[in-house]
Amino acid sequence: MRKFLFIPLLLVTLMSMASCGGSDNDPLTPETPGEGDDNPDTPTPGGNGRYLVLYCSRTSNTERVAQQIQTTLDCDILEVEPQTAFESDYNAMLSRAQTELAAIREGNYPAIKTSVESFGKYDLIFVGYPIWYGSMATPMQTFLHEHAAKLAGKRIALFATSGSSGISSSVSEAKGLCSGATFTETLLLTSSTLSQMASRVTTWLEQLGANREENNNNNTSMKMNITVGGRTITATMEDNAAGRDFLSRLPLEVTLNDYNNITEKIFYPSPALTTAGVTRGCTPVPGDITIYVPWGNVAIFCKNWSQTNDLIKIGHIDGDGISALNVAGDVAVKFEKQ
Ligand SMILES: Cc1cc2nc3c(=O)[nH]c(=O)nc-3n(C[C@H](O)[C@H](O)[C@H](O)COP(=O)(O)O)c2cc1C
Questions:
Q1: CATH superfamily placement of domain 9-19+26-215
Q2: Would you say the CB of residue 138 lies under 6 angstroms from ligand 1?
Q3: Under a CB-based contact definition with an 8 Å cutoff, are residues 188 and 161 in contact?
Q4: Atom 23 (ligand 1): residue with closest C-alpha?
């Protein structure tokens, strides 16, 4: 399991010496950010991490959900902590939360300890928090506010816990704070559904197409089969975040809709494929598999088309396989990994 290190330089040295004693068996508890430290909490370099779980939690409900996601995916995890520890007294905490939420409405965000230098390698970032007065808990609001530019273009999966309140207001808050990010289906566990956490998380991760990392890291094949009627053609996907995201969702059966008189065959993946960090711009030729960014649809080109920066190439159908799709009307297909 890869983890973050969040500690000042001196401690890095001491910890790395200690790690010779077998820290691989450490529990899944996230490491603590450096206190009173203005430096970003920098991820350890290396690895092919696709997922990051960010969470804040006062009484561990959200933390348990975060750890369930982390355990299922074997991915990185980071706790977002307030600069001033949460009040242990419930009424004092209610009062503080009201004050901080009112301050945020005025544009004043309460300080947090946690910061991240870059989200460059992550395809999907899970962001979890408790619901406070119908809103996202304040430390996570601060975190998103402070990292909005770095999260632009990323795919974010929100999850929350609450007594009974819904998640929709906090989703609006997140979208307002990170207008450049793409948001997936969310997960809410209330006091009456928290006991179903394991099955709810599993189902949700399946919906998101999020798989345990080792499965993907060990499988470097970028090839897939496409079955069209009685014929199987093959395609090679691009080795970028969008191409890998597509492959992670296979097998996939969809109907490709004809678009513009057999210029393209299109469908809408749900949720939309990540385009994080992927170069935009493509001059499509027959067989190119692309994402049309403004609409989020996958478009497989049957004809040549002019250059546009709104397209991202994510793969190409091998040989003359495109002839199988070069037919009038909609086509039912099945995509499968090789
Ligand atoms: C300050 C505060 C405000 C809360 N406001 C709400 C609320 O508006 N609606 C609700 O259903 N639960 C509310 N709760 C309950 C928490 O959302 C719920 O207990 C959550 O699971 C706590 O998550 P945690 O253990 O990760 O901190 C509130 C709790 C606190 C401390």
A1: Flavodoxin domain (3.40.50.360)
A2: no
A3: yes
A4: 130
